[in-house]
Amino acid sequence: MNPSIPHRPPAPSAPAAGPRRARRGRSRWAAAALAAALAAGLVSAVPGAASADTGTFRDPDLPLDTRVEDLLGRLTRAEKIAMLHQYQPAVPRLDIGPFRTGTEALHGVAWLGEATVFPQSVGLGGTWDPELVERVGDATGTEMRGFHVQDPAAHGLNVWAPVADPLRDPRWGRNEEGYSEDPTLVGEMATAYTGGLRGDDDFYLKTAPTLKHFAAYNIEADRDRVSVTVPPRALHEYVYPAFRPAIAAGNATGVMAAYNLINGRPAHVTPLLDDVRSWSEHDLMVVSDAYGPSNVANSQGYYDTHAESHAAMLTAGIDSYTDQDTNPSLTVDAVTEALEQGLITEADVDRAVGRSLSVRFRLGEFDPPERNPYSGITPEAIDTPQHRKLAREAALAQMTLLKNDGALPLDPESDTEVAVVGPLADTLYEDWYSGTMPYEVTPADGIAERLGEGGSVATAEGADRVTLTTADGRAVTASAEAGGGVLRAQEAGGGGEDARAISVFEWGEGVVTLRTEANGKVVGLGEGNRLYNDQEQPNGWFVQQLFRMEEVGDGEVVLKYAGYDTWNRKYVSVGEDGALTVDADTPEDAARFRVDTLVSGTDAAVEAVSGADAAVVVVGNMPFINARETDDRESIELPQAQRELVEAVTAANPNTVVVLESSYPQAVPWAQEHVPALLWTSHAGQETGSALAAVLFGDHNPAGRLPQTWYRSTDDLPAMHDYDIIHSGHTYQYFEGDPLYAFGHGLSYSTFEYGKPRLDRRRIGAEGTVTVRVPVTNTGERDGDEVVQLYTHQNRSRVAQPIQELRDFERVHVEAGETVTVELEIDAADLAFWDVTRGREVVETASHDVLIGSSSADIRRRTQIEVKGERIPPRDLTETTRAADFDRYSGIAIADETKADGMAVEGSAGDWIAFDAASLPSRLSGFTAQAARAQEGGAALEIRLGSPEGRLLGTAEVPSTGGKYTYEEVTTALTRPGAGHGDVYLVFTGDLRLSEFALTKR
C-alpha cells in the first residue's frame, strides 16, 4: 500500500490583522458571555463520573482553566502522551472514559448508518442562505448526539466539518466538499454550519466542529508531497478570510492541518497555526489529517525521525495525532522518544492535551447531565420527520436554473407524458463523506409522484447494453444470484441473453463501469483478483469497480482495471476455468473481447423521448469516479457519451431540459447554446427527486445561485499547482475571460427590478461602515426569492485589485408585485488588503465602485463611496526586505527559510521577483543579501530596473553554500540608477534561495 495515501477504515480518519466581521455569526465569546460561561461548568457522558472523584476538575462551578489544570495535574506523563492520539484511552482510576476525535459530518452524519443526508456542501453553498445552512448544521449536530448515545467511545462528538478551503479550481477532486470559490461566501457558510453544529449555548457544545483543511489544500495528485506557493497577499486575502470568521465567531473549536506542504513546509508543522489561534478567544484543538503525522517523516521526508517530526508538530501546534488508525504506538513512542531526547518538554505535552481536554469539558464529559442542555438527545433524534422536511427544503434551495428559454416550468396537467433519461435519471448517489440515505427519491421517482396516476413517465439510462465475446467464441456471463459471483467466459448460448448482457456507463477520461443485467449489480475486483458482479454501486476508499476498454484492433478491446489502488492497475485475462481475472501485465497478455451492442443507449433514450411532452435528461458525475479524494479531474467537459446523449435527445424532442447533477462545475457550451433549459443541482441527498420535480413543474420558484465560476473549457484554467489566483487570474475576482456562467448566476421564474440604492453615507474612514438599502420589486407573476449581491471594486491602488469582490448578500423572499427593501453593509475593514511593503493589512484612500446585482455579471445598480484610509509610501529597499514580500513574480516558488520558521524565495535561471514603486536614492551604491545554494558551483542574482530585461544595476554572485538552509551574505556594487522611483527586479541566473536583501547607500 502506498504509505502516502491514508488507508480509510469504516470509521473516519480521512493566518493577519483583526478578524473580519462575521455578519451572521454569533460572537459567543464576547467578554461578558465568556465570563458567565466560565462560571457555568460542563457535563459528563461517563456514567457515575460525578461520584468517582470529587477533585477540582469535577466541580462545574469553577473556571474552565482551573479544572483543566487540575485534571492535567492528576494524569501521569504516560496517560497524557496517550491522549495525544486520535483514540484517547480511558483512565479507569479517575473514571474517565475513552474519547475519540473525528466524526465526519460535511452534509449530515457520515459512516455511522442511516442518517439524514443533506445536499453536498457545494450545494449548500449554492443556497446562499446562511440561516438555512445553520439549521442544517443544527440538525446534523443533533443527530450526532443521537449516535453518540449509541456508542460514546466510537461515535465521538468532535466532528470534522466543514471544509473551509476555497474552491479555486473546479478540477479539484474534493470540490464537492467545499462551499464556494469566494472566501466571503465560504466564511459565511462555514460560520453558519459550525454555529448549528456547536449549538446555541454560550458554553456547552452540542458538538465540537473542526474546520478542514488548513491551509491552501486544493490538489490531490501527490497531495502529501506537493508544496503550494501561497504569497502573503494570497494567504491573507484568499485563504485566511475563508477560515477566520467561523473561528472568530466562537463557532469552530479547531482546525485540521492539510496534507500538502505550504511554502515548502508541511502544513502539519507550519507556524501559520499561530495566526489561527490568534483569531479565537478560546483554546482551539488542532488535529492532524489521517496519516499526516507519519507523512512528515515518511513520504515528505521533512525530518529524519518520527521523534523529530512529532516534536516539531507539537511545537507548531498539533494537539491530536490521527495516525495508524486505532494503533497509538507510533504516536506514543515518537513523543516519548522526543521527550527523552530533550526535543520537547512535558509542558509542551500539557499544552496540547490541555487544549483537547478543554473541548472535552465543553462537550460535557465531566459534569452532571442536568447541567448540559444537550444531554437529553437520544437516537430518536436521527432521521426525524422534521429533518426529512429540512432535507427537502435544502435540496430545493440549492436548485439553480442556468438557462430557460420558456421550456420551464413544465405543464403540470395530470395527463402529461415526461421521459426521464440519462445515467442519473433513476438513481441517487452518495459520496465518500455522505451518510447512508434512509430512503431515496430519484429524479424519475419525484417526477412520477408529481404527475400522479394520470401522467406517465418513461425512463432510459442512455447506456449501451453489450455482450463481450472472447476470440475463441466464449461469451462473458454473470451470475443471477443476488449476491453475485465470478464473471466467466462460457460457450456461446450458456445462461441466456440476460446472463450475457452488460450495461456500459461512461464517466469520462475513458473510465467505464459495468453492470450485469443478470442481477443488476456492478462489476468489481474481488477475492483472488477476479471480477465479481456483487456491488450496488461503485464504492469504498479504493474504488474497485472501474475499467477502461482499450481498442487493440480488428474491432476488439482489452479490459484494463482502473480502480483507485493505482499500483495494481492491470488487464483482464480469462483463466482455464473461464474466470475473468485481473492479472495481465500488458495488453498483449490480456484477453481480447469483441463488443456486440444489444441495445444502443442513445437510441433507447431517443425512442423514450420521441413524442413525449417533455424530455428531462439527467447527466453529471458519479461521486466515487473521476474526482473525489485522491483523484483530481483532468477536464471539466461532460463525458463524451453524455454529450452525445444530450445532443441526440435535444434533436429528438424540442422540449428538452438538461439537469446537471454534479459535484462541480462542468463545461457545457453546446447545451447552453442549443438546449431550451438547463438546471444544476449537487448530489442533493434523499430528497433530490422531490425537489427537482417541484422546480420542473413550477411548484417551487428556483433561487439557487452558483457558488463557483463555470468556465467554457478546461483551457480557461491555470495549472493545477498555481494556487495564487492573483497571479493566475482566476475565480471571478480576477478572471478576465468570458465564463459560461458567472459566479452568483441563477435564474428565476420571476423577474426582479432593482431600485436606486440609498447609502447612509458616501464617505467613511478606515473603520467606518456604509449601509446600503436597495428596493427590490418582484415584477413577475410568481412569488420567489432573489439573491441580492453586493460587490465592490477599488478604483485606484498601489497593487492589482480584484475586478470585483463580494462584500455582502441577502437571499430575500418577495411576493409577486411587491417590493422589499434589502439592507446590505460594507465595512471599510473588509476593503483592506495585505500590504507587502509593511507586512500588515491596509485600507487605502480610494474611491470604490459599489456594484449591486443578481450575479457578478448581472449588475443592476452602481454607485460609489469614498474611503479615507492611508496612502502606501514608496517602498524603501534600503531597509532589510524579506524576499517573499515581492509584488510580482515569475517562475519562482516560496520555500521554507528554515524547518521551523520563515519564508524564502527559491528560483532557477530566468525566474524573477519584482518590487514595485521603490524609492531609489541618489546615493544608492550596493546590494547585500542572504542567499543559499545547495548545488555545487555558483549562480547569481541580477539587480535590474524597470523589467526583467531592464537596465542591469549589478550582479551578486552566489557560491555554493553547501545546503539549502545554509545562508551566506552576498554583496555587489550597483551602478547609480538615478534618483526617483522605479520597479526593481531580482533575476535568478541559476538555482538558489533568497531570504532577504537590502540596497545600500554610500
Descriptive terms for the model:
6-stranded mixed β-sheet, Rossmann fold, alpha+beta, globular, 8-stranded antiparallel β-sheet, 1002 residues, 49 strands, disordered N terminus, TIM Barrel, Trefoil (Acidic Fibroblast Growth Factor, subunit A), 21% helix
Q: What would you say this structure looks like, in words?
A:
The chain is an alpha+beta fold and 1002 residues long. It has five domains: 33-381, TIM Barrel (Alpha-Beta Barrel), CATH 3.20.20; 396-450 and 610-717, Rossmann fold (3-Layer(aba) Sandwich), CATH 3.40.50.1700; 472-591, Trefoil (Acidic Fibroblast Growth Factor, subunit A), CATH 2.80.10; 752-868, Immunoglobulin-like, CATH 2.60.40.10; 881-1001, Galactose-binding domain-like (Jelly Rolls, Sandwich). It is built from 21 helices and 49 strands. The longest helix has 21 residues, at 130-150.
Number of domains: 5
Radius of gyration (Å): 30 Å
Distance between the termini: 62 Å
Helix content, binned percent: 10-25%
Mean pLDDT: 93
Q: Can you list the strand order of the major beta sheet?
A: 19-18-17-16-13-24-21-20
What count of helical segments does DSSP give?
21
CATH architecture of the largest domain: Alpha-Beta Barrel
| Cα shape | globular
Content-based structural category: alpha+beta
As residue ranges, the low-confidence spans are 1-52
Q: Report the CATH C-level class of the largest domain.
A: Alpha Beta
Strand content: 25-35%
CATH superfamily of the largest domain: Glycoside hydrolase, family 3, N-terminal domain
The CATH topology of the largest domain is TIM Barrel
Number of strands: 49
State the major sheet.
8 strands, antiparallel
InterPro entries: Actin-crosslinking, BXL, CBM6, Cellulose-bd_IV, Fn3-like, Galactose-bd-like_sf, GH, Glyco_hydro_3_C
Protein name: Exo-alpha-(1->6)-L-arabinopyranosidase
Family: Belongs to the glycosyl hydrolase 3 family.
GO molecular function: alpha-L-arabinofuranosidase activity; beta-glucosidase activity; carbohydrate binding; xylan 1,4-beta-xylosidase activity
